[in-house]
């Protein structure tokens, strides 16, 4: 008989949000794999429970090496409980590798549902919740961050991101540049904690606010792109999108193709708009040529 892998959600702030089954699983598991064993100790003390099984660390640095060990434990019949610092395992946290390996080995995987910063922020944002996508953390490097944002510039579903308080101002500024300063968003800070705050407004406004300094755990929720038909996207907007992609390092041909696909217009229309803008830029205020090539 193989064992069972249990993914358990942990509080994202208020320890009273811990699901009742969490204490039972902590007490009964043969192995508890924790992202941070010190945080686990504080959690078990708050819950008044002592793990009877072996406690091991399972974090980004040792995830690849420890996964095979835990799978062997599972194959041998052990009940393995996986917990992270906050929220559900494998959602921007360690866990995916272990789940995939356990499934491949034929091990049963179940969960103790618990708090989720993604769903909590989404519910509090005041933005549409019928369709959304979770984008996790954006790249730290500015160029890579802009590229990732451009990839979802026309996404109509509500977007949810995690971000560090040290980078949230740069991220919001980049979002304002790519999505537009007026695109609605909500910055959710310290959810379920004493100083919980939800700041709502346009991305430009939020970027200015964040520039003054933001602390705590951050989740950003951004309104999806407006549902615009091809006829509503003017030539200037098409050119702007091509230039934005070119500035990020894309070749013009690829940028034109990508913009055309996103906008739902023929590539020839985008090409003609780019050529027209280039020709207009080569003329002076009176329409005269600035000079020969």
From TrEMBL:
It catalyses: cytidine(1402) in 16S rRNA + S-adenosyl-L-methionine = 2'-O-methylcytidine(1402) in 16S rRNA + S-adenosyl-L-homocysteine + H(+). One of its GO terms (biological process) is methylation. Keywords: Cytoplasm, Methyltransferase, rRNA processing, S-adenosyl-L-methionine, Transferase. The keyword Methyltransferase applies. It is an enzyme of class 2 (transferase). Its EC number is 2.1.1.198. The keyword S-adenosyl-L-methionine applies. Residues 5-207 form the Tetrapyrrole methylase domain. One of its GO terms (molecular function) is methyltransferase activity. It is found in: Cytoplasm. Belongs to the methyltransferase superfamily. RsmI family. Catalyzes the 2'-O-methylation of the ribose of cytidine 1402 (C1402) in 16S rRNA. This is Ribosomal RNA small subunit methyltransferase I. It comes from Streptomyces olivaceus.
């Amino acid at each position: 008989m193989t064992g069972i892998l249990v993914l358990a959600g942990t509080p994202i702030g208020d320890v009273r949000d811990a699901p009742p089954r969490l204490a039972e699983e902590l007490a009964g598991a043969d192995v508890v794999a924790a992202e941070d064993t010190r945080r686990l100790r504080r959690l078990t003390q708050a819950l008044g429970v002592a793990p009877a099984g072996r406690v091991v660390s399972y974090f980004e640095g040792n995830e690849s090496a420890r996964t095979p060990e835990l799978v062997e434990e599972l194959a041998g019949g052990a009940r393995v409980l996986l917990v992270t610092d906050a929220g559900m395992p494998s959602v921007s946290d360690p866990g995916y590798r272990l789940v995939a390996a356990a499934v491949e080995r034929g091990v049963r995987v179940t969960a103790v549902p618990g708090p989720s910063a993604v769903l909590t922020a989404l519910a509090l944002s005041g933005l549409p919740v019928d369709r959304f996508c979770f984008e996790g953390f954006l790249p730290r490097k500015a160029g890579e961050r802009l590229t990732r944002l451009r990839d979802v510039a026309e996404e109509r579903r509500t977007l949810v991101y995690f971000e560090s308080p040290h980078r949230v101002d740069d991220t919001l500024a980049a979002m304002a540049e790519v999505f537009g300063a007026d695109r609605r968003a909500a910055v959710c800070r310290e959810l379920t904690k004493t100083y919980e705050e939800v700041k709502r407004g346009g991305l430009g406004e939020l970027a200015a606010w964040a520039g003054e300094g933001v602390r705590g755990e951050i989740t950003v929720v951004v309104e999806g792109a407006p549902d615009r038909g091809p006829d509503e996207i003017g030539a200037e907007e098409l050119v702007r999108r091509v230039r934005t992609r070119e500035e990020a390092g894309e070749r013009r041909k690829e940028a034109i193709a990508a913009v055309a696909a996103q906008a739902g217009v023929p590539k020839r229309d985008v090409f003609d708009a780019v050529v027209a803008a280039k020709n207009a830029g080569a003329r002076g205020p009176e329409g005269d040529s600035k000079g020969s090539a």
